[in-house]
Amino acid sequence: MFEKAQGTAQKIAGQFQDVVGGATGNAAKQLEGKARHWGGQAQESCGDALNQIRQSATANPLVTVALIAGLALLVGAAISKR
Question: Phi/psi of residue 75, each to 5°?
Answer without folding.
Answer: -65, -45
